């Protein structure tokens, strides 16, 4: 019982740190028009570290107490699952908050787009549009850096390769 409570304390402290970090970022944005607060992001990273360290300690404590716990293979699978899903979910959510959406998440949401609520579907399309625009801009910058780009000819526009 204390084993799980200790893990929940780590997760709770991590989430509290992230909430404080969000507050710091929001304060900085409203007072300085800064896009991000470095201190706020550092506190969020500290929160993510709490969740990750808590998961590691949970797993290591379960291994150290394996004799007392007498877990079956299914029990060990449950311990491993409980140790991995919170940090993975937490880090994915934190990436999304900072506009760094994992490709696998966008692909999964796009596959079930027709089952999303209208608001969620609109947000997904907004994110996908932004991702496509950024990719287009990145490729254009690479093309310009190579000396390519589009040039005007009598017959119209053509690629300069």
Summarize the structure in words.
The chain is built from 6 helices and 2 strands. With 161 residues, the protein is mainly α. The chain folds into 2 domains: 2-98; 101-150. It has helices at 2-32, 38-64, 66-69, 73-97, 103-111, 118-145; strands at residues 150-153, 156-159. A two-stranded antiparallel ribbon has the order 1-2.
- Secondary structure class reads mainly alpha
Task: Give the count of helical stretches.
Answer: 6
Uncertain stretches: none
Radius of gyration: 23 Å
Apparent shape: extended
SSE sequence, one letter per element: HHHHHHEE
Number of domains: 2
How many angstroms does the end-to-end distance come to?
Answer: 67 Å
Strand content: under 5%
Count of beta strands: 2
Mean pLDDT: 83
The largest sheet is: 2 strands, antiparallel
Strands of the largest sheet, in order across it? 1-2
Helix fraction by DSSP (H/I, runs of at least 4): over 70%
Entry keywords:
single chain, 161 residues, mainly alpha, 2 domains, two-stranded antiparallel ribbon, 2 strands, 77% helix, extended
Concise account of the structure shown:
By secondary structure, the protein is mainly alpha-helical. 77% of the residues lie in helices and 5% in strands.
Write the layout of secondary structure elements.
Elements: H1 2-32, H2 38-64, H3 66-69, H4 73-97, H5 103-111, H6 118-145, E1 150-153, E2 156-159
Antiparallel strand pairs: 1-2
Helix pairs in contact: 1-2, 2-4
